Amino acid sequence: MRRIDTDSIQDFEKQHIETARRLAPEGAVLLKNEGILPLTETGKLAAYGSGVRKTIKGGTGSGDVNVRHFVTIEEGLQNAGFEITTKEWIDAYDEIVTEKRAAWISEIKQKYKALGQNPVFAAMGSVMPEPDYELPLNGEGDTAIYVLSRISGEGNDRRPEAGDINLTETEIRDIRALNKKYQKFILILNVGGMVNLAPVEKEVKAILLLGQLGTVTGDVCADLLLGKSSPSGKLAMTWAAIEQYPSTEGFGDMNDTRYREGIYVGYRYFDTFGRKPIYPFGYGLGYTEFSLSVSECRADEEKVSVTVLVKNTGSFSGKEVVQVYVSAPSGELDRPYQELKGFAKSRELAAGETQELTVVFPTVSMAAFSERKSAYILEKGDYTIRVGNCSDHTIPAGIITVEQERITEQVKPICPGVDFKDLVPETVKAEIPENVVRIKIDSAKIDTKTAAYRETPEEIKKTETVSWAEVISGEKTTEEFIGGLSEEQLADLCVGNYAKEEEDQSVIGQACTAVAGGAGETTGHLKELGLDRLSMCDGPAGIRVDTSYKLVNGRAKGQGSALASLMDFMDEEEIQMIEAMAANKSREELEAPTYYQYCVAIPIGTALAQSFNVELCEELGDMIGEEMELFGCDLWLAPALNIQRSPLCGRNFEYYSEDPLVSGKIAAAITRGVQKHPGCGTTIKHFAANNQETNRYGSNSIMSERALREIYLKGFEIAVKESRPASLMTSYNLINGEHSCNSRDLNTFVLRDEWGYQGLVMTDWLVTRSLMTNPNAKYGPASAAGCVKSGNHVTMPGSAEDREDILKALDDENHPYHLTRAELQNAAKSVLENIRVLKHS
Question: How confident is the model at residue 576, as a pLDDT?
Fold first, then answer.
């Protein structure tokens, strides 16, 4: 850990900004280009739209990053040498938005007060819809851009209305007018998720999904427009009119959200049911063109490999993504038209250059889950291997024939409670061409995996008190340390580091003693035994910490940047209280030197997934790990890999994809990068089915076990098995009537017994607090004792009430989550083992 006592930009910042600028263009997606891009020169440029000056670097909430500075699109264009001729328009737009935002904030405060809710928490993630206005479009030059921005965030969902998912009348009018007025016109999307472009898509000749790329957003925009970088991203989510998604019906119900579409999420639905989206999954253009030709398709009982020759047939350099899908036979189980099983990205290919790429995936990944048999089954029949550059453009590359059904993995039933039947298509018949290679495999040679489900743990015998130093030195074991702990001390280990003294109570931005602005830490109540704490910092678009702090009595006290985003919705009294707390500093604090910790914001999760480049994501993870080492962060509360079930989810910008394979592969790559750094770990989240923000503490996701296993757990399984993340965070929501953090089915039977996970499991923040639950909701908060019993080791950020709940569950056999001492010891042991690994290995 390093203390930086100067506010000047550091060498690591310069290096990380350079790295981000080099890598970020691969997450941008060129949606349309009819000879407009790249531009051949700078000069006069008419720039319009909400995102020119008010550029969005990323979404709101815990995923936001407090940076020294980020480059707006206006600034980036000027850095590149453009002369922006629409300053008056931009200034006038700023005035309109400032006025309308003030009125909107007042309305939001009144709304939540009338509902009896604190606006600071209830309004988290609320976004003002883009307003309508009339401003003249008279910028000079023959080239114009319109930057359309949207922001969303933790705590609230998006809405299928103008100014959010849909375009406003002003946006439609101005985009159409600019398209006619200027010789060259480019629509730039500074968005974190889908927007419905149907009203303008056919007219506009150039559309660039820039996305939200963190610190370097504006400079990358200029690089892409001028061809200094090439867009090579592919959509990781299908874009269509909102009413076309089967998940739209019932989305955002305060209590019970039924996932009636089952496994037919995203392209699995659109391809299977013959629905034509605006832009399909995996789609993206470049400044050049590519041809794909299959060189070889091989398969056996262990793996399938497909080799494809990629050739740049255009006149610019660029990169291409090879996507390999499988069309499975429909037998007892209905199957999607095709499912992505692997992908690979080429290097930068010059015009005329070629590269062979080989995509390999396990044969057993073609199996599907049978609820009737509680098993993954490779059904007999023909499996067509398909190759393409998006889900809407795939061709057969080979056929694998399985002559006998085989159970590939036998498991136990989990998470009962579904009250409907999943959507099922009519029988899907993929074409079976005659001119492709055919391979037979003997499924009898495929081993059947069977998990060893654990019994109730045995109690560790009581011993004399042991110091943590004796464990670290090897003189004593972790079990001996646990044997010397009282029930109260064991309970302390299973809750976060809450303050026992009122004057030390933490507030947002001060919840971590070692890292100012950190989100929390493991217990500090066993100091007498010399136990370390694990510090935790939010993500996933970088490390969220205070930008400056002072050391006071051994505690890093932030100087307020972590609170800034909450103050809009505070009353005057609350603001005055915060200001008074900031002003009420001890002499020691006033005299203490100020230290600085500026982090670099990386592209949002969706943009990382759009790169389809695991090496790129691993490099960015390595960059995050370096900053974690620098600022003393042990656990990064990222990556977030929930499935983008619906474009309406307000937190989609943090997530990767509608596809679990992409989600798992990208999360694993980020984790490998971070964990190259000793003592640094990731926290994959939110386990599982955290797919809406409406009443997020009490929302019940109801789904079939098949959908849960094949879609919503699969990405986590991939990340766990391929990267061994140090920790995992459970989700706020319930699944089929039980809070995920209280689900033994998920946290023990699936996570530990089936997948072999050995890391730390923690809750999301405040999930046990009744004040966070909507007063009109059907379901109450989770239980800290239920967390311990389920295999969720730590309740965060921790409170005296959580500790009391655990101790009560030990004594009261009628407690809904009655605990044995052995169960409490088992959870405490996991906490201790992970502290030992991160702090002392």
Answer: 65
